[in-house]
Prior knowledge:
The protein has nine helices and ten strands. It is of the alpha+beta class. The protein folds into two domains: 2-147, Regulatory protein AraC (Jelly Rolls); 152-251, Homeodomain-like (Arc Repressor Mutant, subunit A), CATH 1.10.10.60. It starts with a strand and ends in an 11-residue tail after the last helix.
Amino acid sequence: MSYYETSAEKSDYFFFEKRTVDPIPAHFHSRTELLIVETGTICVSVNGERRTLRRGDVCFCDGFSVHAYEDAKDLTAYILLFDKTCFAGFASRYPDKTFPAFFTFDDFSLLDTLYRHYLSAPDKSLALTGVCTVLTAEFLKQVSPVPRITGNGDALICRILDHIERRSEERITLASLSELCGYSREHISRTFSKYVGSLPQYVNRIRAQKAKALLAQGDKTVSETAFACGFESLNTFYRAYRAAFGISPKKTKKTP
């Protein structure tokens, strides 16, 4: 599943953490996301390119890059999420450029120092700007900036994911997306498969996620919830719900 991570757009949504990573399906947001592996491994996908990362490997997700995390094993990683203000110094010196999606950086002594500084800082936003400035300078010793290219596929998949996130209760098909975006059904299908996978599975996962939230409220029956979220049959709803959460929707529904 892929989705537009709307929570990441809040002005106070930023962090610098050291932890493992749960599987996160393909998603995108305007903020930059940075992951540096200290121990273990993790499979990461950025704009359709998949890599297995190990100690010292970096994943740099520029704004609106479609990315996903899966198959983490014994993982400990430094993870940062920040907006463009934290990256202003780099942007002013290297307009229209960014860092590669994948490169290496293994100065864990520096990372630990920056992490402890961030944790102890009373103003986390200001501290994160400082952390990003230092890391940017250090990264430039290891790797050269590359042109920031927003290909047609990147822009198209972001538009599709945003549309489905907002209109998932409606009937969504290759034909409707083709009409919306102005591309052929074949092009929509190829692009979606490259970045995300199966369109029906993705749409049903989004619908199941919304159904889970509705069921937890307890205001609607299971059937009412399924149809309100865009499912055309209860059998499809039950299959999608079990695939997404491993349980029956009846076990989620809030009872009086």
